[in-house]
Design goal:
The protein has helices spanning 18-66, 68-72, 91-102, 123-132, 152-160, 177-187, 212-232; strands at 82-85, 109-114, 117-118, 121-122, 141-146, 167-172, 192-197. The longest helix is centred in the N-terminal third of the chain and has 49 residues, at 18-66. The protein is built from seven helices and seven strands; from the N terminus they run H-H-E-H-E-E-E-H-E-H-E-H-E-H. It has a five-stranded parallel beta sheet, sandwiched between helices. It has a domain at 74-201: HUPs (Rossmann fold).
Length: 233
């Protein structure tokens, strides 16, 4: 070896050398440290997505509940041959049907009257007396006696036979309008149906949850509507 030259030894890393093992262990540690971090980010995103989904579902549910009363109400009166009032003895509905007739929505009112007595007086007779008090209704209101134990559409069909109309306007309670229209359109498709609520002034949206009686009515009408759609249609 030449004098003055410093001896340099080269270190060659083999697969089994400590240098290689050290680098592999460092790489493994970095990989193991990165894995939990990525898992944490994934779990966090999944948690946020779940919370957002629940919030969205709650929002939709609240919106549906808020409009539950509105959905039951259908108000689309159309000029018809006759006006049918399946009132079951409620003067408010009879009066509303008469108002529609006076405003040109129909030439005749068919007033369904239940076949029972009220304080010893037959309800059909009371209805006749009620309409007779208004002279302009002479010959324009037909009292049709119905049996409340039979389907309403079946009773209406018998009442309509006398007039043979092509179109019929129904006047009923506001929360019964959708179900009544669905039932009559399904059971008696030979007629063209429209419907209007008996109540003149209505609040939109209907705040049914603020009144116990109204809330009960909405619940019962929804129950009947769902039952008819699922089992009776």
């Amino acid at each position: 070896m030449p004098a003055g030259r410093v001896h340099e030894s080269a270190v060659v890393a083999t697969p089994d050398s400590p240098t290689t093992l050290t680098r592999d262990s460092e790489s493994a540690q970095q990989g193991s440290a990165a894995a939990p971090s990525s898992m944490r980010h994934y779990s966090k995103r999944k948690y946020i997505a779940a919370i957002a989904s629940v919030a969205l579902l709650l929002g939709v549910a609240l919106l549906a509940l808020r409009n539950a009363g509105n959905y039951l109400i259908v108000d689309n009166p159309a000029k018809s041959d006759v006006i049918l009032v399946p009132a079951r003895g409620l003067p408010l509905r009879y009066d509303r049907g008469i108002d529609f007739m006076r405003n040109g929505y129909g030439g005749h009112v068919i007033a369904d009257v239940p076949a029972f007595t009220y304080f010893g007086h037959p309800v059909p007779e009371l209805a006749q007396q009620y309409f007779a008090q208004q002279p302009d209704l002479a010959g324009k209101v037909d009292v049709c006696v119905v049996n409340l134990t039979l389907p309403e559409s079946e009773q209406a069909a018998k009442c309509l036979e006398k007039f043979q109309p092509k179109s019929v306007l129904i006047v009923t309670g506001q929360f019964q309008t959708r179900l009544t229209l669905n039932i009559f359109s399904h059971d008696l498709p030979q007629y063209r149906w429209s419907v209007a609520p008996a109540q003149r002034r209505r609040q939109y949206p209907v705040k049914w949850w603020t009144n116990g009686v109204v809330a009960k009515t909405v619940f019962l009408e929804w129950s009947q509507l769902v039952w008819w759609e699922l089992f009776s249609k």
